[in-house]
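2024-03-11 09:14:02 INFO worker-7 job=invfold-0412 stage=load source=structure_tokens
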């Protein structure tokens, strides 16, 4: 499957160049495998991301079944400017993840995954925001608040680092 190898190589180069030239995360579509699991009260477009969150946690020794978290998941307009996602929790209401529809429509795979995982970081992992920086000045965590001015380089090369960081405080 030589063709596929060449494609993924080119993809990484394009991604790399785009990351250097702009602050906005690239919008290439990564072909994802369809979700195998379903999640009650969650928009179907979020299922594969929820499932990947479980898989990434499991790869780090944490077993979560998101269906046991009484979550809702929606993609709809968030009227706060610049807010791509929210997680509301507490009280008797189910923990509610909302992803902004205009953001969703223009975002690529990595941006979408980063925002969904950020909200699940609040709603499932119970994590707060952190504004920590890496040695070279990028956001050290996808749990950044977004009010600082660091950049999060969540892409094919750095994703493993960010997911280790996301789950590591909880890993056994
Ligand atoms: Zn947040």
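2024-03-11 09:14:09 INFO worker-7 stage=emit residues=172
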């Amino acid at each position: 499957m030589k063709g596929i190898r060449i494609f993924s190589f080119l993809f990484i180069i394009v991604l790399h160049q785009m990351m250097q030239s702009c602050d906005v995360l690239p919008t290439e579509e990564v072909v994802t495998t369809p979700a195998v699991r379903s999640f009650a009260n969650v928009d179907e477009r979020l299922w594969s991301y929820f499932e990947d969150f479980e898989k990434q946690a499991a790869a780090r020794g944490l077993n979560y079944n998101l269906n046991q978290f009484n979550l809702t998941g929606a993609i709809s307009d968030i009227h706060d400017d610049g807010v791509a996602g929210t997680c509301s929790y507490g009280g008797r209401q189910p923990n509610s993840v909302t992803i902004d529809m205009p953001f969703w429509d223009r975002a690529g795979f990595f941006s979408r995954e980063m925002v969904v995982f950020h909200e699940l970081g609040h709603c499932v992992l119970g994590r707060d925001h952190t504004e920590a920086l890496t040695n070279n000045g990028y956001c050290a965590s996808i749990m950044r608040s977004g009010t600082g001015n660091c950049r999060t380089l969540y892409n094919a090369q750095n994703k493993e680092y960010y997911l280790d960081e996301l789950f590591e405080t909880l890993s056994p």
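2024-03-11 09:14:09 INFO worker-7 stage=report msg="The radius of gyration is 16 Å."
2024-03-11 09:14:10 INFO worker-7 job finished
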